[in-house]
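pinning this so it doesn't scroll away 📌
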Amino acid sequence: MTKLEPYLFANGRADEMIDFYQKALAAEVAIRMTFGESPAPAQMPLPTGWDAKVMHATLKVGDAQLMISDGDSDKPANHTGFRVSLALDSEADVRRAFDALSAGGSVQMPLGPTFWAPLFGMVTDKFGIGWMIGVNA
């Protein structure tokens, strides 16, 4: 089986991102390992004091996985050229996720009916991650 799973780099804000997605998407933390907990030394230069930063985390969002890392930089992240698509089972679930993800972010396409879904919208969250959220068709 082939899986395609998003891996987001948070540039020092991974714990904040994890907490936000736990609340916004009812995500469950399956794995969380810091650079300091790694059994092997870092393979890239890291900012000073990053032992407590997230080397790898896996969140379960329904049947899907969303992976997150602080990466290797404390410079602001630039998340352009993609969106994460989230398909949910009900309009109530879509509205809840859309509202939660848009908190502190921006709406590019308000929720509304489309020819492919009874409810669909696009938002960029406060971390700069673009989302397309709709009802499973």
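📌 and the second one:
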Amino acid sequence: MNLIVLKFSLMEPFYLLFGFLIRLFYGFFGNYGVSIIVLTILIRLCLIPLNIKSQKSMLKMQALSGKTAEIQRKYPDNKEKQQEEIMKLQRENGVGFSGCLLPFLQIFFLFPMFRMASAPLRYISQVSSENINAMIALAQKKDIVAGGRALVETNHIALIELLNTNESFLSECISKGYIAMGQMLNLDLFGIDLTSVPSWKPMVIISDPGHYVPLLIFPVLVLLTTIMSNQLIKVLKPNYKAEKEAKAREKANPARKGQSQTPGANDSAEASMKMMNYMMPVIMLVTSFTLPAALGLYWVVGGVMSIITQIIVYFMFTKPYELKKQELEEKKANAFKKKKQDDAASSETGKKKKKK
């Protein structure tokens, strides 16, 4: 219990910051859903420098692949020494590990966004915890229920529903000073209630299709954006085309097995990554049916921003790197071809002199 209290107290400044930002955007746009969209875009824009840094590190690692392979050949039976030398090589060449920080921050930001979706009265409307508890106690004293949902301090969805649907309860809360009319927010996006949890159950959807059918758009879009983002990560990564061609050669000739892997790669790591690409969209889809639609909206906008960022980073860094690499390889091939021709010409000249 103490750990839960500590976690909430440590995160409280972030909850208050996110609440302030959404309140600021709500005051400007007058729409809760649009406020979440703007905040999500702002978060993703702040993460772009990390995306760029991560991509630069990846390109540096690709450039060091030859030296990495040499280390692996030098210490074939000593994995610990291999790792030590590879880490040293990466440090000396300025390869960072911001790629590990990026997923962590994306997960970290979910916690304050979840609080914005589940506890908007406290963090967006700025109703005190004491007043929220007082309203819950009043509803329990009068034996008022909110569609079967539990009234709890940490999740305001049931209380908000009660305030929106029971005029006498709202009037009494206002008269007692628990809440002001100005603190009542319209928590929707173009008519879609973002405090509601989407349902996949046919009987629930049929019971109120006008309410539940529009909510299905969020799980569907979460699934699509997650799949698209995962595919772009795979397709836009450095050397994707070369790896794909190598795999095609492996398939045609099993004797070539292993040449499609980058140094340090292995079948189990590749299989794990492939499994994650399949599992992640499913996990995201299932999760979107268990949380308020506001979280689904956050994931959808975040997914779209991730796709846009990947495309921008690809054209800014990955593509120029690949073009430069291709140019160098062509120069190397032409130089080798010219040397071969020169050697052949010298050999032919030597033969002619001997004949004379």
